[in-house]
């Protein structure tokens, strides 16, 4: 008991210390065997490649796509991929058993992995995260360790292989999503096992999980990473030693593999970041359907944001009428928001039970793709620019080019950019990215006393007719120390 109180106190003190310091100067105060070690701030080529993606595609697909959020005229209120957990009071009779037999009808005759991959490429996605198995436990690859797989559906063929091959052929990197929650496995449980029987049963699940992961890594050697989900159960978070060993094993089997912060718990069952506040895993996976407001909020970590097109539907939901559906414009803005803060944006698609990507998603992919075709220079390999967010849109930086993607065009066609005098670079030339038309740029002194900015006015062509966000590119040069305003005076 005393030990628990002391531990809690130590964790509390440590997190206070962490909050009070910047993440870069943090000192670890809690000794951990299974903390942030091995990962975070990787500098190898694989991680650099991950950092340069900018845009990714998520695909949630499984037998839940057959009901698509409804069954026998009843509508499930939650996320469509969770439909198996429909509560007894509102679900159709014998729902769980109906669901568990749906795989016998899974025959996606319209599935064309090559067409999906072409569409993803056209959208500009550099990586895809594909659900090999969601919480229901149904495997889209012919796993040797369970019968609940695609092999026993009418479709029979290895869907994971089709996806991996098709996306790789388009030059798109593949990451495999794997849910630790598995409602189909007898040994799976959410609460930590206590009795000898429970422990023995959970051991079978741990063994099964390890086998499946090794199987995936070996079956699909071009995979770039594993994207874990459903790791919040207490049964799992108490397994730090086992998960740590598994993490090590997977990394050994697949050198360079990228595994985010949703896999390993620390010694005290903390996920995402350990009890010292350090990121566990190669990048932050906590940004689900939300974006960090500022670079400070990201704590300087690598991160990606996984984003649904409706508010919270990952698997196919037939009803897209009763909620707001994000537009390609919304998503392009989120993309800029992400890249400007060193993150990747991953947009989710939920193909239907026959394997078709819905036309609305197709139209969004086309819209984003058209924009990317002209403007992706401001996205791929681009980073946080080290400047405050401009009111007109978002800055991204690549080498000595600064990109301003404009969403809010000023009515007088003058972009007035406030560059902190402390910024080490100066804005030299300006041009529109599309067409490379030079723009007039001049230093402006609007005479705000004690203002720590230098202002640059950039004139947009009055005849620029455009109804999409557009990019202005600046050549950056060394600052000659002359960023101070002429009119600054001592008072
Ligand atoms: O429960 C899942 C959900 O269905 C979906 O797969 C998302 C994707 O990030 N992950 C879980 C919720 O965090």
Give an overview in words:
The protein has 491 residues and is α/β, with parallel strands linked by helices. It folds into 2 domains: 45-378, Glycosidases (TIM Barrel, Alpha-Beta Barrel); 393-485, Golgi alpha-mannosidase II (Immunoglobulin-like, Sandwich), CATH 2.60.40. The chain has helices spanning 2-20, 45-52, 95-100, 113-123, 159-169, 196-219, 234-237, 240-253, 295-298, 328-340, 359-375, and strands at residues 55-59, 70-71, 74-75, 127-133, 173-179, 225-229, 258-259, 284-288, 303-307, 343-349, 393-398, 401-406, 414-420, 425-432, 438-439, 441-444, 453-459, 470-478. The strands form 4 sheets. Strands 7-6-5-4-1-10-9-8 form an 8-stranded parallel β-sheet, with helices on both faces. The protein starts with a helix and ends in a 13-residue tail after the last strand. Bound molecules: ligand FHN.
């Amino acid at each position: 008991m005393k030990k628990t109180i002391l531990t809690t106190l130590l964790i509390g003190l440590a997190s206070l210390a962490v909050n009070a310091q910047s993440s870069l100067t943090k000192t670890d105060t809690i000794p951990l065997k299974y903390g942030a070690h091995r990962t975070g701030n990787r500098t190898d080529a694989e991680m650099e490649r991950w950092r340069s993606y900018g845009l990714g595609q998520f695909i949630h697909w499984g037998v839940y796509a057959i009901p698509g959020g409804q069954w026998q005229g009843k509508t499930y209120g939650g996320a469509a991929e969770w439909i198996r957990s429909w509560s007894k009071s509102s679900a159709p009779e014998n729902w769980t058993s109906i669901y568990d037999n749906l795989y016998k009808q899974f025959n996606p005759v319209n599935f064309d992995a090559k067409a999906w991959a072409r569409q993803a490429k056209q959208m500009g996605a550099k990586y895809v995260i594909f659900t090999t198995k969601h919480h229901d436990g149904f495997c889209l690859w012919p796993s040797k360790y369970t019968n609940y797989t695609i092999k026993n559906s009418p479709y029979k063929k290895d869907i994971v292989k089709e996806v991996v091959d098709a996306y790789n052929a388009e030059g798109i990197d593949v990451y495999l999503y794997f849910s630790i929650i598995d409602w189909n496995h007898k040994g799976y449980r959410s609460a930590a096992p206590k009795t000898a029987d429970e422990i023995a049963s959970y051991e079978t699940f741990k063994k099964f999980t390890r086998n499946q992961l090794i199987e995936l890594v070996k079956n699909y050697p071009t995979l770039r990473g594993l994207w874990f989900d459903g790791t919040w159960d207490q049964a799992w978070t108490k397994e730090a030693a086992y998960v740590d060993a598994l993490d090590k094993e997977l990394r050994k089997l697949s050198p360079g593999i990228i595994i985010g912060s949703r896999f390993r718990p620390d010694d005290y069952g903390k996920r995402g970041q350990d009890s010292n506040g350090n990121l566990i895993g190669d990048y932050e996976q906590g940004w689900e359907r939300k974006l960090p407001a500022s670079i400070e909020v990201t704590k300087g970590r690598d991160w990606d944001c996984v984003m649904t097109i409706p508010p919270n539907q990952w698997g196919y939901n037939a009803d897209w009428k009763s909620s707001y559906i994000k537009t390609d414009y919304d998503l392009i803005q989120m993309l800029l928001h992400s890249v400007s803060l060193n993150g990747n944006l991953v947009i989710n698609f939920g193909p239907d039970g026959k394997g078709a990507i819905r036309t609305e998603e197709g139209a969004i992919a086309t819209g984003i793709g058209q924009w990317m075709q002209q403007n992706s220079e401001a996205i791929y390999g681009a980073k946080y620019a080290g400047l405050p967010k401009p009111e007109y849109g978002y800055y991204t930086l690549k080498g000595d080019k600064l990109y301003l993607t404009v969403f809010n065009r000023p009515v007088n066609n003058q972009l007035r950019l406030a560059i902190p005098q402390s910024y080490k670079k100066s804005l030299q030339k300006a041009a529109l990215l599309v067409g490379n038309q030079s723009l007039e740029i001049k230093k402006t002194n609007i005479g705000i006393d004690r203002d720590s900015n230098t202002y640059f006015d950039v004139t947009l062509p009055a005849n620029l007719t455009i109804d999409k966000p557009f990019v202005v590119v600046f050549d950056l040069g060394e600052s000659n120390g002359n960023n101070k305003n002429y009119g600054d005076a001592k008072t």
